User: Fold Pentatricopeptide repeat-containing protein, chloroplastic from Polarella glacialis.
Amino acid sequence: MPRCGSAAVQRHSQGETSRHVGSRADDQTSSISSPVLQQLLALQRPANQDEVSQILSAELCSWRGNPRLATVVLNGLARHRLPCMARQLLTFMLGSHVETNTFHYNMAISACGKAGQWQLALSLLGSMLDTSAAPDTISYSAAISACEKGRQWQLALCLLSSMPARRVSRNEISFSASISACGKGGQWQQALNLLSSMSDIRIIPNVICYNAAISACEKGGQWQLALCLLSSMPDMKVAADEISYNAAVSACEKSGQWQMALSLLSSMPGVSARPDEISHNAAITACEKAGQWCQAMHLVSSMSASRILPNEVTYNSAISACKRVARWQLALSLLSSMPVMRLVRNEVTYSVVISACEKGGQWQLALSFLSSMPHIRIARDEISCNAAISACEKGGQWEHAL
Assistant:
């Protein structure tokens, strides 16, 4: 595995920011029930301001005496991904002279992040400057996370760079969200620059930062850099986890490095990173693309031995591996075993099975599978139809092809 000396970056998990935003509210208010939250959740969407205000008016006196009670409702709205209603709640609080603090706004911005409403997140962050609720690190991190989810990497970087001027400290959470935003925007170079810049301001990258950076390299087709980051983590005293390895395996898969994908997969137990269906699926797909059907089938078998449940992606990739080498009998065997594994066969499944029959010269089977698809409520697509037509052409069955 190649090694490098540069610092590595992360892949921000959406839940990281929300955990930091919501954990304090859970600690402070977990023992307090909130019937008003249930009333708000029962409103037909989208609710208007008058409906929300009418429900909240009954809480006015208690909220004025204890603004912390509002955090229960805001936390619930964030969990249910209702940012517009969270904004309506803040509007009610401001209009009713209920104290609104930084924590209230952080909850609302977190709701925006979970719902992908980056515009509203930025609006709320900007409105904090007009109130006594000063934005803090969590405010900016939640807004950056909203931009990350909305694939607005330029805005995420703009927010990150503006924090020092606002005298707001940056941390590993704000950097991890920014790195992830760059990764989703195809800006792997920017992601790596952010990771390496963290040491300049004495912020130690954590595993989430590294995961985001590896994921950025994976999306950018930079498998060698992905492995470089993975191998540098021990030197930085950061323990790689399943997400780290899954992203690296996926990077190898996308670049056709099936041997390296298998090597990474086999090394995971030795570093206390438990392989799961995601890592196996990436390795199986790598083998499928390289025509290594035996390796793909071995991986499928090893999942059961390791008590890892395969899913539809597992079987579709394995069937596709069989298709590439015209192992149509094995493809049919995998197809028939899917119901036993309680897996749903879909358009992709039947398309690769029909293609396997086509490559194996089994035009009758190809037509049979194609004709059966509507009866089991699976839509026939262009790929499945073209594969069946090709099977008929190869078998000299022009009338069936037409």
Remarks:
- Residues 130 and 234 are 45 Å apart (CA to CA).
- The chain has a mean pLDDT of 89.
